[in-house]
Design brief:
The chain contains twelve helices and ten strands. With about 300 residues, the chain is of the alpha/beta class. The N and C termini lie far apart (about 50 Å).
Length: about 300
């Protein structure tokens, strides 16, 4: 990415390039306004405080959103938490009874990437749905949307919320043009349609046999994600091992990178902490050939067997 002084914000100038960048992003997703904020518990808490009403939050949202909701609740506001069912899907019955004005609910569950039918949610929830669309780039069925700039670009800087006059106009000096540029570049890239997932799962299951488990139905997740578990070992052991072969998998979301905690999403589904530590997510950034699939799966299998042998 290249940045120039023309993208810096100057209160005494017209900021033409910044205005074009902002307009292009908002119009791409059919919103009228843009708000810059930190993708952190403090940043989301700031958004919630601007709303200053009781809210509902899915426990399947990012760590930053959930932690912000807990802080918001400690300040005296009412927060309704929408649970995840044992199969990894959102609890629609709880949404049906919501009286809150705002619901933080994305089009997929973090960690597992189980798809959430926001169209179905909007049929029963008449309030404002605020969603993270970083993995789908589809804002069709939400009322406000934001992006995880780290997931989109690999750099951590401020995110943006796109909305229709949901928040008051933001001071120009508070807008992070670096984050805006990173997000704009990412969402305008050509996206390759992933079609190798089924073949990858087939080879993975054949290789690992009974040591391979699903926490969620593979067909319920996004096309570019495989979520599975390896019995009898902690995910972080195989994560470290595979990284030496440039294969990067995770046990949890980006917000908890570097922490030793297991996937809180799997725990929220009713699994034990030990089981939660076995969960792994793998995302495809491009289609893999059959030979590439065999290579990756064989390395996963080899890594698993080596670690399992050390424990026996």
């Amino acid at each position: 990415m290249s940045l120039s002084n023309t993208l810096s914000i100057d209160p005494l100038n017209s900021n033409v390039e910044f205005e074009i960048l902002s307009k292009n992003l908002t119009s791409k997703f059919n919103f009228s306004s843009l708000h810059s904020f930190s993708f952190s518990k403090e940043g989301f808490l700031g958004l919630m405080l601007e709303l200053s009403v009781d809210i509902a939050v899915s426990v399947g949202e990012s760590e930053a959103v959930v932690k912000a909701a807990e802080l918001y609740e400690s300040l005296g506001f009412k927060v309704t938490y929408i649970n995840i069912l044992h199969d990894g899907t959102i609890d629609h019955k709880a949404i049906n009874s919501l009286k809150d004005e705002y619901l933080f609910l994305s089009s997929y569950i973090l960690d597992t990437f189980v798809k959430v039918d926001l169209k179905k949610v909007k049929e029963v929830f008449k309030g404002t749905v605020i969603s993270n669309i970083s993995a789908t780039l589809d804002a069709t069925d939400c009322d406000a949307t934001y992006f995880d700039v780290y997931k989109l670009s690999g750099y951590f800087t401020h995110s943006v919320l796109l909305h229709n006059e949901l928040l008051k106009e933001q001071n120009l000096a508070s807008i992070d043009t670096v984050g805006l540029k990173l997000i704009s570049d990412a969402v305008n890239k050509d996206i390759e349609l992933i079609s190798c997932k089924d073949e990858f799962i087939k080879i993975l299951a054949e290789t690992l046999k009974d040591d391979f488990i699903f926490f969620v139905d593979a067909d319920s997740t996004l096309k570019n994600v495989v979520h599975f578990g390896l019995k009898g070992i902690k995910a972080r052991e195989v994560i470290r091992n595979l990284s030496l072969s440039n294969i990067y998998v995770t046990n949890g979301e980006g917000c908890s990178l570097g922490l030793s905690r297991p996937s809180r999403i799997i725990k929220a589904m009713g699994y034990t902490e030990l089981q939660s530590r076995q969960a792994l997510s793998l995302s495809f950034c491009k289609n893999l050939s059959s030979d590439e699939i065999l290579d990756v799966v064989s390395k996963i299998g080899k890594s698993y067997r080596q670690i399992k042998a050390l424990h026996e």
